[in-house]
């Protein structure tokens, strides 16, 4: 890819932020924020899991080549980490109105 092409594609991808801003403002005017937040949360989950799950599988496969005990420890640690993350987000969502940093 040439320098001009790279700059053009970078500029075009940056312009999508402005399209998202306009769309968000328009949808915010019709009280569709609950759907916007749901869609945004789903997109963040999709992006993170698509990147994270293959990496977790690769680490688990490497651990299974060493020993079954190491593979079990790796699996347990991965599941504890995922569960802790889900619980943390649930608690934040549950008590979001009570949190005050001032």
UniProtKB/TrEMBL annotation:
<feature type="transmembrane region" description="Helical">
    <location>
        <begin position="75"/>
        <end position="95"/>
    </location>
</feature>
<dbReference type="Pfam" id="PF02535">
    <property type="entry name" value="Zip"/>
</dbReference>
<keyword id="KW-0472">Membrane</keyword>
<dbReference type="GO" id="GO:0071578">
    <property type="term" value="P:zinc ion import across plasma membrane"/>
</dbReference>
<feature type="transmembrane region" description="Helical">
    <location>
        <begin position="34"/>
        <end position="54"/>
    </location>
</feature>
<protein>
    <recommendedName>
        <fullName>Zinc transporter ZIP14</fullName>
    </recommendedName>
</protein>
<dbReference type="InterPro" id="IPR003689">
    <property type="entry name" value="ZIP"/>
</dbReference>
<feature type="transmembrane region" description="Helical">
    <location>
        <begin position="7"/>
        <end position="28"/>
    </location>
</feature>
<dbReference type="GO" id="GO:0140410">
    <property type="term" value="F:monoatomic cation:bicarbonate symporter activity"/>
</dbReference>
<dbReference type="InterPro" id="IPR050799">
    <property type="entry name" value="ZIP_Transporter"/>
</dbReference>
<dbReference type="GO" id="GO:0030003">
    <property type="term" value="P:intracellular monoatomic cation homeostasis"/>
</dbReference>
<dbReference type="GO" id="GO:0005886">
    <property type="term" value="C:plasma membrane"/>
</dbReference>
<comment type="similarity">
    <text>Belongs to the ZIP transporter (TC 2.A.5) family.</text>
</comment>
<dbReference type="GO" id="GO:0005385">
    <property type="term" value="F:zinc ion transmembrane transporter activity"/>
</dbReference>
<keyword id="KW-0812">Transmembrane</keyword>
<keyword id="KW-1133">Transmembrane helix</keyword>
């Amino acid at each position: 890819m040439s320098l001009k092409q790279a700059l053009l594609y970078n500029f075009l991808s940056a312009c999508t932020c402005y399209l998202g801003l306009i769309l968000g403002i328009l949808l915010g005017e019709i009280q569709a924020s609950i759907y916007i937040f749901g869609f945004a949360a789903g997109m963040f989950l999709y992006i993170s899991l698509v990147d994270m799950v293959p990496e977790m599988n690769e680490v688990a496969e490497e651990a299974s080549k060493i020993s079954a005990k190491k593979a079990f420890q790796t699996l347990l640690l991965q599941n504890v980490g995922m569960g802790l993350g889900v619980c943390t987000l649930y608690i934040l969502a549950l008590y979001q109105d009570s949190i005050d940093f001032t």
